[in-house]
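Please check both lines for our workbook:

___
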Amino acid sequence: MIAPALTLRLEMEIESDSRGGFWRFTFLTIDGQLFSQAEDWEPDISRDRLELLTLVRALESLEYPSVVLLSRVSPYLEEGIRFGLPQWRTEAWRWEYFDHAVPICHQDLWQRLDWDLRFHRLILPSEQRGNLVAAAASWPSSNVSVYPLGGDRQSRVHRAIRKRIDGPKVPAGISKKAGGPWPNDP
């Protein structure tokens, strides 16, 4: 099975007065070319649900199993994927709240995301320091190879991996967390 490596950028904007939200997802190939994009407006929705809905729709739009690098994500979504999904799956999609088992928030979307992750390998921002090929190798399927869409497999993958995963070179003594107009910063 061949899994294209794509970078996913999620964008959301909530209007405080109407509780409606705009969402957009953009898939880019490893070499930065636009692969696909979609956007829409959702009425009466919270920020957490809008972000989760955007991710689910993005993954469900992919035609083939893929390796997807998330460019930026909220702590709510990252912690839910890393820690919540495995626990909720075994606990029948409930969590303990003051000695009572209550359904998790946005259960319908978390279950759809759990289903989507059976087909796609999602690489979170916290996992993106290092080599994409090594990260993709941790995918359950042992016969998965990674390639950038449309290009020479060896040289372009390694250049793109270094550029996208490790990020830009930051001058010595300056922390990237301090903020700044870094190239390739989404």
Observations:
- Residues 2-178 form a domain with the Nucleotidyltransferase; domain 5 fold (CATH 3.30.420.10).
